[in-house]
Specification:
Elements lengths: L15 H17 L14 E2 L10 E6 L5 E5 L2 H15 L5 H9 L10 H5 L3 H9 L10 E3 L5 E4 H12 L4 E6 L5 H13 L6 E2 L2 E2 L5
Parallel strand pairs: 1-8, 2-6, 6-7
Antiparallel strand pairs: 2-3, 4-5
Helix pairs in contact: 2-6
Length: about 210
């Protein structure tokens, strides 16, 4: 008696629902993810027990490295463009369209205004090297002398005032290294107080229970 051959049938699985789910997940993660910019200096924040979350939007971050150099950054590029326009107009600095584009590509800015033109003529790699080099002093905290000999606001204060003028809901965040000299942090607080900026966040790392 001959063997009975069973006809093989192909198994077909509809992958359309799985593809839809994958696209939805990808869209979700793209819309909810926060892209972290590279900071010009490595900062190890001090520990604290506070669990208050530092705002991620409408924020001006004031970064202070371990030797006391000051840098700044904002999360909204449109506002950064307006702040740059305000500062360059105030100090009479003329920047080309390419230099302005370089400024917007920078993760954070932190050079004296008198060096801004020269700094923004560099390519991106050279900009990163310059801002981290010893010859760059960061944003100066010293008061600028007025034409009548009196002491005016510092470059740091002018940057903060310009940012506040662009966004009145701006939150200020001071992010210092655990080895940052206390006198530098205190001086920044005094600079903010002098321009009536009395509310700000201090960025820290959450202290572990065993600490």
């Amino acid at each position: 008696m001959g063997k009975v051959k069973i006809k093989k049938q192909d198994v077909w699985i509809d992958m359309t629902p799985m593809s839809d789910v994958m696209v939805l997940l990808l869209t979700f993660f793209m819309m909810t993810s926060t892209f972290v910019k590279n900071e010009p200096a490595k900062v190890l924040t001090p520990s604290s027990v506070s669990e208050i979350k530092v705002p991620e939007k409408d924020a001006l971050t004031i970064l202070v490295d371990s030797v006391g150099k000051v840098f700044m950054g904002m999360d909204n590029q449109g506002e950064i463009r307006e702040v740059l326009s305000e500062i360059t107009g105030l100090f009479g600095v003329s920047l080309s369209a390419e230099q302005q584009a370089n400024f917007l590509q920078d993760a954070m800015w932190g050079v004296p205004i008198e060096n801004l033109d020269e700094y923004l003529k560099l390519d991106v790699n050279e900009m990163n090297k310059y801002i981290q080099s010893e010859k760059n002093e960061g944003i100066p905290l010293d008061s600028i002398e007025n034409s009548d000999g009196t002491k005016g606001m510092s470059q740091f204060q002018h940057w903060v005032k310009a940012a506040r003028g662009v966004n009145d809901d701006l939150k200020l965040i001071i992010k210092g290294d655990q080895h940052t000299p206390y006198k530098t942090v205190k001086r920044i607080m005094n600079e903010l107080r002098d321009i009536n900026e009395n509310r700000y966040y201090l960025a820290t790392s959450l202290k572990a229970s065993e600490e």
